[in-house]
Write a structure and sequence with these properties.
- Strand 4 (about 105-120) and strand 5 (about 125-135) form a beta hairpin.
- A 5-stranded antiparallel β-sheet has the order 3-2-1-4-5.
- The chain is mainly beta.
- The model has no long low-confidence stretch (mean pLDDT about 90).
- The chain is built from 2 helices and 5 strands, in the order βββααββ.
């Protein structure tokens, strides 16, 4: 018996830009930081859920930045928190606390493409990135609900 058998039909074709659309996702990374002006910001990375039948399973939607200084920015953060299931008036003690509480939250994201310039070998090149632009409550029950299962002695075979 071999450890691994090569299958050329099952080889990765490389990077594929996530198509625009709605996806069930989970927050896999959230980091607090500061903007260039020294104001608080939050950088959030999403992963398209693999336990839900949908395109781009396992793909990442990276480097989504949230700020807190303008009314529109605050509304966007509030829509993210609502989609993640936080109760109204839930208080966060700091951007770091918010980042910590966002990890592993399930939600539905709407992906849109954004163009940007990247400097490569001294010349600007146009690039396209997938970014989460809208946030909704997930349509899918999370794999593990808060509280877990209660197993008593009567449930054990020994």
């Amino acid at each position: 018996m071999s450890f691994f058998k090569f299958d050329q039909e099952n080889a990765s074709a490389g990077f594929e830009l996530v198509a625009e659309g709605k996806y069930e996702a989970v927050i896999v990374n959230a980091e607090a930081g500061k903007t260039q002006a020294g104001k608080p910001k939050l950088s959030v990375d999403f992963e398209i859920r693999s336990d839900v039948p949908q395109n781009h399973q396992g793909a990442k939607v990276l480097y989504n930045t949230f700020t807190f200084e303008h009314e529109v920015s605050v509304r966007i953060v509030n829509s993210l928190l609502k989609a993640c299931g936080f109760a109204n008036n839930h208080a966060f003690s700091s951007p770091e606390d918010m980042a910590k509480q966002l990890i592993n939250k399930n939600l539905k994201i709407t992906v849109k493409h954004e163009e940007y310039d990247k400097l490569v070998d001294g010349e600007k090149q146009k690039r396209t990135a997938a970014k989460a632009k809208y946030y909704d409550v997930s349509d899918v029950t999370p794999v593990m609900q808060d509280g877990g299962l209660t197993i008593g002695d009567d449930d054990l075979p020994f």
